[in-house]
Amino acid sequence: MKKSPFILLILVLLPILTLNAKDLELLVGMSADYLTGSFREIVYPDSVSVNSYLSELIWNLDNIYVVNAEGSLSYKGFKLYCSAGTAVNQGTAVMTDTDWTDYGDTAWTHWSISNIFLERSLFLDTNISYTDRTSDIISASIGIGYRLNFLDWEDRVIDYVYPTPPVPDIIGENGIGYQVTQNIFYLDTGIQVKDENVTGTINFRYSPFVYAWSLDHHLLRTTAPYFFKDSFYSYMWYEIDIAVRIETGKSGCIVIAYSRQELSETAGNTEYYDENPSNTELIGTFLGTTEYSAGLASVISSFSISYIHKLW
What we know:
CATH architecture: Beta Barrel
CATH class: Mainly Beta
Structural class: mainly beta
Strand content: over 45%
Radius of gyration: 24 Å
Oligomer: single chain
Order of helices and strands: HEEEEEEEEEEEE
């Protein structure tokens, strides 16, 4: 006998409708974060060289302020958490670009430094966890989650040392645009210690699978390729998160936290593209690819303060 869509909907929603509302807890909040750290963009030599790198660009994070919205829904030890944030300023960091084009000499051949500006960013985090209260004071949690880090910079050259000075002079020019995306699927373990209105938490997160890609646009090149698109698979990302939660009443609390996440250096493939003839800001014709020619590594440290409000 065919069931109507209405009956099927009731069957799906019945377990949710029978939940005891007293066991549900819904929290929402906002946080302000201060970020520091760096992203390393690496090019490996395509033949035997005395140097480990052909090129290394270090994109630093400094004086970056992020605003996050967050929320969680808990039921009998299970918790679903989500947050989303973006930077509200461009930062005051620099990028250094070092090349070793002489494969027989360990000395660098080209060097430049640029002011960099964070044009766009997005930080997402969602996870589901289960907490087991071993006592009134100590509890432990385990969970799985997904993290997205997206950052997009452009630079302005402030100094350089080249064997042959470029003509015209590139001081003040936007030489490179760089964006990086990290998709992180992680495991989460935590310990919580509570003493009256104060709770201390330590979480360790590890990812055996990170899919990342980056796009480098060399604006000052005079010949193709102009775009370099790198893709990476990594199994070595971790984060340590330390937080103190202070209850401010029956329905509110303040959370002060520090976290450090690190992606170990990993090698990936590079695709090469020309510029789009009608718009040089866009990728054009595909020109080729090389394997294990690119590297990526990153460290992000965050200091944050949050206010969390209990809706029910």
